[in-house]
Amino acid sequence: MPHYLRPEPTILVIFGAAGDLTHRKLVPALFNLFLESGLPERFQLLCIDRVEHTDESIRAYLKDGVDQFSRTGPAPADRWNEFAAHVSYLRFDITDASYYDDLRKRIDETEKKWKANAAQVFYLAIPPGIIEDIACRLGDAKLAAERDRARIVVEKPIGHDKDSAMAINSVLRRHFQERQIFRIDHYLGKETVQNILAFRFANACFEPVWNRRYVDHVTITVAEQVGVGRRGGYYDKAGALRDMVQNHLLQLLCLIAMEPPVSFEADEIRNKKTDVLHAIHPITEHDVAAVTARGQYGPGWLEGEHVQGYREEPDVAPNSSTETFAALKLFVDNWRWQDVPFYLRTGKRLPRQVSEISIRFGAVPHQSFPRESTIGYQPAGLVICIQPDEGIVLKFQAKQPGQHIRLSPVDMRFSYRQAFQTPSPDAYETLLWDVMTDDSTLFMRADQVECGWSLLMPILDVWSQVPPTDFANYQAGTWGPESAELLIARDGRTWLQPTLLEEAPPHKDVENE
Ligand code: BG6
To answer: Which of 216, 332, 333, 434 has the most crowded Cβ, counting Cβ within 10 A?
Structure first.
């Protein structure tokens, strides 16, 4: 169980409290923090939405979310009742200034009752189109004025393209200072993602090989089995590049490629990551066809079940050209990474849910072993398993037992579950706690978001100007379109089959066959 320092008194206001994110993620995370003494002693969760609810009915709705989605299972009645005493509901019209005045009064009253100044966190769990409106009204109602205590949390996607992201950032910064703005990319809250920093910078032995001299290429795979489910309305306007690459995959790349930070100050880490984004070789419209691949799933089979194609999903246009799979090749132009390709891919309805980063080292400069010893030789590699398996696998060559020298690839495995014997907190637990304790290290700064968009704009432009002619071009339950295989095969490489961390493959005794 993680050991938390208790945050200062906090009033957490969730806009969109009757929505899916609050139900599936935010309240289950808050409840787990509560169970592990990670919430402040003086804590108020003020739920805001436009629908009719009473305190009682919103509590029942939120408990249902905890029962279904909490990593610790259904809420024990007594603990839930204690937590629920901190929860209240305010029906709200976000377009009416008088409601913000009421909110101000509620906050003032709570602080008076507590005889304490509280952190005031405004969490916007709402569709992206209304972020600006709410931010302005919070600002106009002086709810952003307490620079050290008022915070606003916004979810990705920040914008639909670079211009809209800049417009949102500019409105946010008109009313809040940058240090008051917490832009969530929930991947950064995952334990295994944070562990990339520990692995790289708490061990002196990896840095010397973490560069173009030893690394041949890097692949980053974020594969999902799920389709778009009930999110077709949003997803059909977004697609995989906006939904996953612009944020999650680029953030993973930054953590792999960044220079060592001087300290763990939020801005120091974020500066080093932003340097990577600045160093990525810009993709021109002319390059797009050569360095990207896009796909959309058709009907297929997943784990023995027939699933429908993307165009048959609810709220998706029947002739949609939105990509549900994207792959790209990037280069980071700096001394450390010049000419090392980074291949990124993500897609829905792929055969397995798996997120992992694979660092493939180059071959030895001279192969001393006889040819027959090296059949099936693979250069060493390191796989960082983000989810669902959590850990790291070092793949290297070993001598098979026997009289002859025969090399065989073997794995050395670190599993979080086995090493620490404790479940990892959910990303939202970490991130909510960080907001309450005012630590913005794991949140995206405006310049990072805008840099990510700048990089992807030429791809988005070309993809919208030249609609795909072959969609749906991969069957649900397969590893994506052929063009993604070709993207990497053209360089003489392959996407590796994802590593199964928990199950070591049985050792095959080739010698005795
Ligand atoms: C979200 C995307 O940001 O991340 C979803 O909008 C995606 O489309 C999800 O399914 C994946 O998150 P996780 O934590 O399940 O890998």
So the answer is: 332
Q: Same domain for 119 and 47?
A: yes
Return the ligand 1 atom nearest residue 427 CA.
14
Check which CATH number belongs to the domain holding 28 and give it: 3.40.50.720
Within a domain: residue 351?
A: yes
pLDDT tens, 360-400? 999 998 988 888 888 888 899 999 999 998 999 999 999 99
Q: Please tell me the distance between residue 186's alpha carbon and the centre of ligand 1 in angstroms.
A: 8
Atom of ligand 1 nearest to the CA of 222: 16
Cβ(224) – ligand 1 distance below 6 Å: yes
The answer to whether position 160 is within a domain reads no
Ligand 1 contacts CB of residue 356 (under 6 A): no
Both tokens assigned to 112: 């008076």
Test site for ligand 1: of 156, 184, 243, 297, most ligand atoms within 8 A of the Cβ? 243
Q: Can you give the pTM of this predicted structure?
A: 0.94
Q: Is 426 in the pocket of ligand 1 (CB under 6 A)?
A: no
> What CATH number corresponds to the domain at position 320?
3.30.360.10
**SS3 of residue 494 by DSSP:** coil
Q: How many CB atoms lie within 10 A of CB 269?
A: 20
| Per-position b or e across 2-17, b if 16+ CB within 10 A of its CB | bebebbebbbbbbbbb
